[in-house]
Predict the structure of ABC-2 type transporter transmembrane domain-containing protein.
Amino acid sequence: MKNVFTIYRNDWIRIFKAPVAALLIVALMVLPSLYAWFNLAASWDPYSNTSGIKIAVTSEDEGAVIRDSSVNIGDEIVSSLKKNDKLGWEFVSKEKAKEGVTKGEYYASLYIPHDFSAKIATILEDKQVKPEIDYSVNEKLNAIAPKMTSTGASTIVQQVKENFIHTVSESVLSVFNDAGIKLEEELPTIRNIEEKIFALEKEVPKINELGEKVVTLEGKLPEINKQAQKILTLEAAFPDINEASKNILLLEEKLPELDKVGEGILVLQEKAPEIQKLADGVMELDAHFSDISEMVTKALSNVEDMQSFLETASGSLEKIEQGINNGKQLADTLPAFIDANGQALDAVGPVYKQNLLLHQKTADAVHQFAALVQNGNLTEEEAKTNAVALQAQVQTSIDSLTRSVALFTTLNSVTPNGDDALLSEIKDLQALQTNFQQEKKLLHTIQAEDKEKASSLLALSQEAIELSTTLMNRYDKQTEPAIHRAIEGIKDSAQNAMNDLESAQANIPKLEEILKNTDESLAFAQEELTKLHSDLPTIEKKIHEATNLIKKNMDKVLAGINDAAEFYQKSFPSLKEKFHEAANFVRNDLPAAEQDISKVAAFIKTDLPRVEDAVHKAADMVQNELPNLEATLTKTADSIRKFEDEYDLGEIISLLKNDIQQESDFISDPIVLNENSLFPIPNYGSANSPFYTTLSLWVGALLLISLLRVDVRDPEGIYTPNQVYFGRWLTFVTIGLCQSLIVTLGDMFILKAYVAEPVAFVLFSMFISLVFMTIVYTLVSVFGNLGKGLAIIFLVLQLSGSGGTFPIQVAPPFFQKINPYLPFTHAINLLRETVGGMVKEKVLFSISMLIVFSVIALIIALFLKKPLANGTRKMTEKAKASEIIH
């Protein structure tokens, strides 16, 4: 707080030390007052000075003769207007009036045509014609003047109406007075009965029509009862209907899944040739399964033979290693070993290829398992059992891949300068091994409902399938030739052992490692082939069953796929749309329909019997009593008409006696308006002082933020942003309070504006200035130049939406909606209370709302001043860099 008051004190010390600054501050205190005073003075009492609004009047009325008396109502209107000084009436010709209105010399014109009096006289004739007065107005001259002139024209027409009614009623009542009052008491009753009889006679056709409808309705009562029973049945069925409705909504939710099924059917239809081909392949496999069994048996036998070769070769190689004493002995022994055990080395490639096929099998098995889990086709126990088995199978492949990587590494090491094909094979084998290791981790933790892990496992297994397929596809063209080159290199090195003893000796351990890895890989192949051989009877049985099933059902399946595809393409879209319509009806209309049917059912149960009884009674009356009633009514109406034809109604009412002048005055002007002004304000200027005073206070705040700085020079960084805000805020508020004091005292003592509560007027204005200054100062202090724009936008919105000049109810809907949320609205209302007379509740409400606006502004300052300080400063510096904006 000390720093806040330091800033405030320094501000005023600097102001008083600089005469120009002090003069400017005084000007800023006075300028808003001038804005309010000049506007109030200019519109102090406009409605008492309307005599300057010129209206051209032209009368060409030729008059008329009424009962041997000449009358000219147009001249009477002109005479009346000459005595009227509320508007500037000027009596000119029709042409001059038209030209004057067009050129703007007159705001409006009144033209009384030549037959004006003659048309009024038609009141005494069989056919009356309403007289007309032509009113023209130039609306572009001024927004308010047309309303004033229109009021003047309407007043003239009303005055003519009143005079006319007064004259006519006076004449009629004079005749009544001469005739007497013999029928005075009974005349209203006679008139009322007569009108009702004639009206009832006119309605006889409708009554007959209604009677026929009642009789028809009675005939339809059995059918109505039948339909009513259907409604009761429908009401009883509503629980079932609601249950079916739930199924409709559930089916609508499943429509996207049905769409996917339909799309799958279309894919199946496209794949139908492939499906047929696959089915043919299964049948062919069944036909030649014995050949496959023989092939597996032969392969197993070949593996056993290869194992024998490898064991023999490994034993011979050990003896060679143990018996080597010198280079000559190695040169003699190694070529002989190669010649004797070449088949063992030649088995490296085929054994590796066999293992690749087994790796593909492992990848396919994992992929199928992952798909089953993702589709929810396995129980928890099935998933667990399969996962355990697959873990073992995957681990076997991982071990085999370890040996294969070691094998190819050894082969690459015996190849001079290495071999790119062998290196590529090693890289992909390692990738496949890593993939299988990741699959094993997922298989260890996966569960039947674990869709996320199933999706990951599905992706990994797909990658494994692609890797193993890549390895298999390039075996014949790349991998097998590379293996062959490496083996041949070893053989050549052995044959040339005498020439290169050192190389031959170095290759013996590598040759031993190749044989060892090949033997271990062969063991993996033997294990898998043995397992496959044992499973062949089961596989053969399943293939045979599948073949029989295909033969029996393939045509039906393909036909079913085609039918389903045709239904999905042609019928399903419209069916889906109908389901949506049905679901929308269930959601939107069914509850209301159920409610309506329940109401109808309740009516049927409780009120329909009474309605039936009433219909029967009405039908009986129509058939038995209505003809006599109609005849009586017709006879009565004819008697009344005959009476009126034989007797003059004027002679009957001549017995009436009355006060002619009093009743004539009453007819021409039947209503007395008692005006009671609450909180009277003597003139327009005083009534407008709340608006212009409020406006001047906001303008004063805008002037301050435009000319004074909201920041404080603080090169040493002594003050925090909030201290700067409140320190400079005190300066702005002090000036604002002076502005409000000057404008309110000037309103009362210079303009002599009427104020019912002068002290409250001054104090509340100072409070409003405090609120406005807080809002405007906060906008600029927190948002910089952007805040100035926001303050101006608020001013524009408040001028239109505060209801300061016109009632807010006549403004467009947008301004009516924002009216309660504008500070102007409550500030103007608060000052109006002081000008006209205060109502405690309204005063407290307005003050409360203004306090809310102040609190909001302070909250914005407290929470945004510091975070936005750097951004606001940079934005201000960039604006100043333009050398246009300060």
